[in-house]
Amino acid sequence: MKTTTLRAVLTASVLALLGSALVARPASAAGYEACPTASLCLYSAADGTSDEGDAVHAYGVTANSGAQSYGAWSNRAESLYNNSPYWACLYTEAGYGGEVKAVAPGSKGNLAALAPNLGGKASSHKPAPSQGHCFTGFERCADGMLCLFQEPSGRGRMTGVTQDYRAYHPDVWGNQVESVVNRTDKTACFFTEHLDQLTATDRPFRVLPGDATSTGVSHANTFNSHRFSAEENCS
């Protein structure tokens, strides 16, 4: 009788332990097949799985969708599935900044293998019709705005303005502009000095209406003010 009772207790204990182990398995055990169609899915562990307590992080992908910042999910993805017809442009920094990797439609795998140049980091993404579209971000600027970017080709942190700025704040945009797009109907005139400190020898960097440009090595991170002009020569 004692032997039977002991066996029953041991059996119950083993079943309880097995039950606990099953409950502790990741909720995303379904893997890549859990990724909805037309989505970019991020997983916090390798091979389409997730750490305990995490679920697949799915972003719906359309022509104009994107995530300029992953917030709390920045740099947490270890694997991904681009279950969409678009290229997935991955960036190490928010605002489509830092290093970039174009992940082909239908690709899935570990981030380290798909995008080794990102160094395991991913903080933002956007869909694109081709690889080339991953390397510019000018499309973020709305009509009627003058947009400044802290990285070349419209990438990185962005601000949009519609008025003159006498002096950029030194901790925000002063000496930090590397590309510009002008979607206004006036010429944008940029200066290395504040507007109230200009002399006859100061020459503007001009961006005509409708133009988008990187500032180039000679002008990168030198702008400290701008004004709009109805004249092409900024007079």
Structure description:
By secondary structure, this protein is mainly beta. It has two domains: 31-135, Sandwich (Gamma-B Crystallin, domain 1); 138-229, Gamma-B Crystallin, domain 1. The chain is 11% helix and 29% strand. The chain has helices spanning 2-23, 111-114; strands at 39-43, 57-60, 79-83, 87-93, 97-103, 108-110, 124-128, 146-151, 155-161, 179-182, 187-191, 205-207, 212-214, 225-229. The strands form four sheets. It has a four-stranded antiparallel beta sheet with strand order 2-1-3-6. Strand 8 (146-151) and strand 9 form a beta hairpin.
Shape field: elongated
Number of helices: 2
Our estimate of the beta-strand percent is 25-35%
Largest sheet: 4 strands, antiparallel
Percent of residues in helices = 10-25%
Top CATH class of the largest domain:
Mainly Beta
The secondary structure category is: mainly beta
Name the strands of the widest sheet in spatial order. Answer: 2-1-3-6
CATH topology of the largest domain: Gamma-B Crystallin, domain 1
Radius of gyration: 26 Å
Mean pLDDT: 87
Order of helices and strands, N to C?
HEEEEEEHEEEEEEEE
Report the count of strand segments.
14
Within CATH, the superfamily of the largest domain carries the name Crystallins
Poorly predicted ranges: 1-29
Distance between the termini: 105 Å
CATH architecture of the largest domain: Sandwich
Total of domains: 2
Provide keyphrases for this structure.
single chain, 2 domains, 2 helices, elongated, Gamma-B Crystallin, domain 1, mainly beta, 235 residues
